[in-house]
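Notes, Module 5: Reading structure tokens.

Key idea: the token line is not a picture. It is a compressed description, and you learn to read it the same way you learned to read a sequence, by spotting repeated patterns. We will look at two proteins. The first is printed below with its tokens.
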Amino acid sequence: MKKVLVLMTTVAILATGSLSAQGQQAEYPNKPIQMIIPYSAGGGTDAFARNVIRFSDLADDIVVRNIAGGGGKIGTMEVVNARPDGYTLLGHVMAIAIGYHAGLYDTPPWEDLIPISSITLEDSAISVNADSPFKTIEELIKYAKANPGDLSYGFAGVGGTTHTVTASFANETGIDVNLIPFSGGADSRAALAGGHIDVMSSQVSEIIDMVEAGDLRILATTGSERHYLTPDVPSLKERGIDFVFQVWRGFFAPAGTPDEVVSRVSDSFEEATKNEEFIDVMKKLGYQIEFRDSDEFLAEIKRNHEEVAKISHLLKAEQ
């Protein structure tokens, strides 16, 4: 009789614990979620993340925290080392898929983080000063081939997306240019506008105001087709150059985060992408919406990893 009583008590305790765990999962989130952005407030990734959150049903539950420094590494590692319970997440840009090859991280991102979803894509631009003699991308390439090492080509941040698009473009077209890294996009834009460098890679949205003001001229963009903000500017692909480069932005959780938590956040952010006001905001920022769930996002990151591996020696050479 005592054995039966003990057995029944044990079963009851286990059942209660199981129901309690299910209840906790169903209640997620039941406390504030910390969204780490590894860059300064006001930047592209910060604006992107805050808008996704604002239009999601988790808006009241998520608190954004900016931890800048180390090319995004400091904030990223804060999430990597966090408890995998869904209450510390990461908003990041494609640079995280590049950092391993640039020597920023010791392991590929999918070993330490779970991709939740990616939301947007953004084309890069290859631009010159408005007074530059180069009127087309073909003219620039022809000159660079005839004068190896003569052109100064600026970009923002060693091992970042603009470094990658610069090195990839030079590698694809077979040109030899003098790569000039700057600490940030504002510095590289100022250098190009001031005539201190010959050409620059950036995101389209970062320079559209300077183009409209007559300070800069975009020779080509890196999407599969023309960018809607610059309909008169050809894409590299359109000009017969087999090169497409689009920067994604998305979200991550620490490795070990429960699948149901990842799905809950992913579903919330996917719903945000269907909001007409959100779509309008993203369009004004220069982003196109292309939602990828966790599995699709992981596949894209691994594809990026393989592509960047081909030019990793160029990224490390500039450090």
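Here is the second protein, with the sequence above and the tokens below, as before.
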Amino acid sequence: MRSELLILSGDDVQNLVRTALESEEVVKCMARVFEMVSSSEVGEGVSSEHDRVQQPPRLTTLSPEHATLYMPCRLPAPVTESSSVHSAIKVVSVSRTGGGGGIPGTTLVLDESTGAARAVVNSRALTALRNAAGSVLATRLLGPKTPTHLVLFGAGLQIKQHARLFIQSYPTITHCTIINRSLNDRFKELLADLTTEFTNLSLEGLVSESQGIEPAVRGADIICTATSSTQPLFNSAWLKYGVHVNLIGSYTPAMREADAGLIKRAGRLVVVDEAKSCLVEAGELIDAVITEEELIEIGTL
């Protein structure tokens, strides 16, 4: 018996994100997934490999133009009442030259019984929403309760979704500073969109060489970074006590968005989604020579 293949384009997914996905439900879903990942690792209720979250380390292939990432996964149980068990693999192709092209994120969903392809999903918007929800969850668990100043590094969809979700989740945020490498068209469009959407927000855009970066970082209650930087984006000595920092950009040992001093300063409050993979992929953690025992998985909180 042949099954139909569902294909969801970028526009299809964007419409679902806007009309059918409540941001609070996505945050709760991420909490459940993180819990399942950490529970599987420590062996709670795991009697066989089928009962475990299967998430092999991310694979990367390199070409002169792109780095392509392959991320397979299988959850042992539905995350929500309306979902079912599936295996999936996401493929993301990232430009190595700063140009366009590539695959911003495509997920292949496999049938649990037959292994056949059930769906092909453009995952760009979903990835941005998921990452933002994970950052909001981490901030709720560990960050300030009434933040007023949000600082963001980057100008892509990840940062746009972070801005939207944080401002919606924290009505106390009145000031948002976004810092990007240059005042390019994408950055201008991001600032214009957020200005239109959040009319009561004080929004400031800065480029990386601006002298305004240090005072912005010093005054931040929450900082989120989503870049491909290979150099720290700010001096960790600028951070005030109690600031919460979400670093989501690094996925290779050569990438780093913060200096080793930040990791050392955080001490026992370095929280990650999965310790083993982060110690292999995150340049910040590798530079800080941190051990798995010093990391806290968010799913255990």
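Summary for the second protein:
- The chain has a mean pLDDT of 88.
- The first helix runs from residue 10 to 19.
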